[in-house]
Amino acid sequence: MKIFTSFAKKVGILAFWLAVWALLAHAVSNVFILVGPAETFGRLFELTQTLDFWASIQFSIVRVIIGFLLSMLGGVLLAVLCSASRIANELISPAINVIKSVPVASFALLLVISLNPSHVSVVIAFITVLPIVFFNTQKGIQNTDKKLLEMAQVFRVNFWRKIRHIYVPSVSPFVISAAESGLGFAWKAAITGEVISLAARDGIGGSMQTARSWLMTADLWAWTITIIILSFLMEKLIFQALRRLKKWQ
């Protein structure tokens, strides 16, 4: 009964916002400015019948995943290095802070000049998520129970056992939190990179840029809905993988 009530509530909320969207589109009454949900989902259905639609999705998903995984690996390794070495921390932390502060659009414009446009989205996703993983991992290392570390030292617990039984349980919740929030940022950054790197026409961002150029508002909304759905599905997959990791621990 509770499951049915929860589902009905979600359907009701969705119906409410679709109705608001439809009313706004009717009030604007200009398909070049805003289209309604019927036109958007109708156009989305049409796009799903084309090979180009699925090719664009594949292009973007691969680059989001690569950038995301590289940022997870790089962020954890850099955080461990900075926690182990004061000199490394003094050299690397300011650079990570700079990366965190620079807008995604600025990075994308700079990278378009020096990189192949098809690689821009990977690097942008990597750069955007890296600070999140780095600072979360550092926080996890710093919050490791000092008494446990002292006890391990007294009983001469070897290095790998300390990693497995003390550091991993302490740091993993922070890394998992970074992964959960970082995936959404990776999607936003990667698509932004594709939109700005005009030569990258093969991805979702390139298709959105084409739709904007030709004032195909329905296509823009359809691609936006596609991004939301893909991001939601990927987050669900990541959550399932993380839950299994927690059980394994």
Verbal overview:
This protein is mainly alpha-helical and 249 residues long. The protein has one domain: MetI-like (MetI-like fold, Orthogonal Bundle). The chain is 86% helix and 0% strand. The chain has 10 helices and no strands. The longest helix has 38 residues.
Total domains, how many?
Answer: 1
Total beta-strand segments? 0
Give the count of helical stretches.
10
Query: What are the low-pLDDT stretches, counting only 5+ consecutive residues below 50?
Result: none
Strand content: under 5%
Mean pLDDT rating: 87
Percent of residues in helical segments? Answer: over 70%
Key phrases:
single chain, mainly alpha, 249 residues, MetI-like fold, globular
How are the SSEs ordered, and which strands pair?
Layout lengths: L1 H27 L8 H11 L3 H34 L1 H16 L2 H11 L2 H26 L3 H9 L4 H38 L7 H10 L3 H32 L1
Helix pairs in contact: 2-10, 3-4, 3-6, 3-8, 3-9, 4-6, 5-6, 5-8, 6-8, 8-9, 8-10, 9-10
Brief rundown of the structure:
With 249 residues, the protein is an all-alpha fold. It has helices at residues 2-28, 37-47, 51-84, 86-101, 104-114, 117-142, 146-154, 159-196, 204-213, 217-248. It is 86% helix and 0% strand.
